C-alpha cells in the first residue's frame, strides 16, 4: 500500500513544472477550507497532504534562482 | 451523490455557469446568505495535474460570471445541502467579509528565491526571552524585507497583501497580492522594473489568479 502512494507522488513529481507547482500551491493549499469535509485523492487525507508536501519541497529544489 | 464545491460567489451571478471538472452541470446553492457554486458527483476527484487544472479553470470561468469569487480548496466535498449549511453557517460573517474584500479583484503571486541569510534582527533576539522570540518569529513570518523595493513599487496597485515565509531555500517567501481586475499587466511591468533594484534575490511573478490566498482561514 505504501509503495503505491510513493509511486503516485513520484508520477506527479515527474510531471512537475513551475506552473504546476504554482497551481498546486494555490488550488490545493489555499482557498476556503471547510474543516473535516475535505475528501482528498483516495479518500485518505494523509495521502494527499503527503503529496502536497512532496510537491512543495520539490518546488524548492526545482526552481533554482 | 455528493456536492463538490468550487467557490463562494457574490451577487449578481450571470448564467450559464457551465460544467465542472467532471463534466457535471454546475448549480448555485444559497445557504446562510452565501452563494456556493457546486456540482453533483459520484466520487471525489483524485489529485492529478489534470484535475487541478480543471478545478482552476472552472473557478476562473466563474470569475467571468460575477464580480466576487472566493475559491474553495480542491477536493472539498459535502454530502448534501444540509451538510453544506452546517459547515458554512458558523463562518458566514467572515466569509461575507472575505467576499467583499475580493470583489472586483484578482490575485498576483510573487515567489522570492535566494540564499537564506540570518538577519541582524534574528541574531539580536538570541538573548531575548522565549515570549519575545516567539513574537519576533511571528512578525518575521509576515515580512519579506528582501523584496521591499518591489513591494514599494507596487504600493499603488495592491489592495491587500499576504506574506508567507518558507523554510527551504532557495524559496524564501511567497507574497500574495490582491489587485484590481485588469491591473495585472501594470503589476507585472512594475515588478519587472523594480526587480533590477533587488540584491541577492530573484522574484518570479505569476497571475492573475482567482483570490485563492485570501480565504478567511488563510487571512486569520
What does the model show?
The complex is a heterodimer of chains A (65) and B (220). In chain A, helix 2 runs antiparallel to helix 3 (45-62). With 65 residues, chain A is mainly alpha-helical. Chain A has helices spanning 2-14, 18-29, 45-62. Chain B has 220 residues and is α+β, with helices and mostly antiparallel strands. Chain B has eight helices and nine strands. Chain B has helices at residues 49-63, 81-88, 92-102, 120-124, 130-140, 148-153, 184-195, 216-219; strands at 2-9, 26-31, 34-41, 69-71, 77-78, 105-114, 158-165, 171-180, 201-209. In chain B, strands 1, 2, 3, 4 and 5 form a five-stranded antiparallel beta sheet that branches. In chain B, strands 7-8-6-9 form a four-stranded antiparallel beta sheet, with helices on one face. The model of chain B has no long low-confidence stretch (mean pLDDT 89).
- Please compute the radius of gyration of chain B using only Cα atoms: 20 Å
Overall 3D shape of chain A: flat
**Stretches with pLDDT under 50, minimum 5 residues of chain B:** none
Helical proportion of chain B, percent range? 25-40%
Strand proportion of chain A:
under 5%
**DSSP E strands of chain A, number:** 0
Number of strands of chain B: 9
- Derived structural class of chain A: mainly alpha
Order of helices and strands of chain A: HHH
Instruction: Calculate Rg of chain A over CA atoms.
Output: 12 Å
Strand content of chain B: 25-35%
Rounded average pLDDT of chain B: 89
Report the uncertain regions of chain A: 42-47
List keywords for this structure.
heterodimer; A: 65 residues; mainly alpha; 3 helices; B: 220 residues; alpha+beta; five-stranded antiparallel β-sheet; four-stranded antiparallel β-sheet; 8 helices; 9 strands; 33% helix
Amino acid at each position: 500500500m505504501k509503495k503505491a502512494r510513493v509511486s503516485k507522488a513520484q508520477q506527479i513529481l515527474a510531471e512537475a513544472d513551475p506552473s504546476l507547482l504554482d497551481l498546486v500551491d494555490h488550488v490545493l493549499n489555499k482557498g476556503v477550507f471547510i474543516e473535516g469535509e475535505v475528501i482528498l485523492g483516495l479518500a485518505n487525507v494523509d495521502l494527499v497532504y503527503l503529496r502536497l508536501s512532496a510537491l512543495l519541497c520539490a518546488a524548492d529544489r526545482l526552481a533554482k534562482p | 451523490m455528493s456536492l463538490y464545491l468550487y467557490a463562494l460567489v457574490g451577487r449578481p451571478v450571470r448564467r450559464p455557469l457551465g460544467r465542472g471538472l467532471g463534466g457535471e452541470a454546475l448549480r448555485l446553492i444559497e445557504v446562510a446568505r452565501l452563494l456556493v457554486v457546486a456540482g453533483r458527483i459520484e466520487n471525489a476527484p483524485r489529485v492529478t495535474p489534470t484535475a487541478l487544472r480543471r478545478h482552476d479553470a472552472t473557478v476562473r470561468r466563474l470569475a467571468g460570471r460575477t464580480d466576487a469569487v472566493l475559491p474553495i480548496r480542491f477536493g472539498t466535498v459535502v454530502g448534501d445541502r444540509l451538510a453544506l449549511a452546517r459547515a458554512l453557517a458558523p463562518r458566514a460573517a467572515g466569509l461575507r467579509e472575505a467576499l467583499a474584500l475580493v470583489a472586483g479583484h484578482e490575485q498576483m503571486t510573487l515567489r522570492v528565491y535566494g540564499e537564506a541569510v540570518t538577519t541582524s534582527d534574528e541574531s539580536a533576539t538570541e538573548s531575548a526571552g522565549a515570549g519575545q522570540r516567539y513574537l519576533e518569529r511571528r512578525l518575521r513570518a509576515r515580512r519579506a524585507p528582501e523584496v521591499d523595493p518591489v513591494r514599494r513599487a507596487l504600493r499603488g496597485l495592491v489592495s491587500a497583501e499576504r506574506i508567507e515565509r518558507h523554510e527551504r531555500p532557495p524559496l524564501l517567501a511567497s507574497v500574495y497580492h490582491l489587485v484590481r481586475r485588469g491591473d495585472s499587466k501594470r503589476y507585472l511591468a512594475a515588478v519587472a522594473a523594480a526587480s533590477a533594484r533587488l540584491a541577492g534575490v530573484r522574484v518570479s511573478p505569476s497571475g492573475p489568479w482567482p483570490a485563492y490566498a485570501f480565504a478567511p482561514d488563510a487571512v486569520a
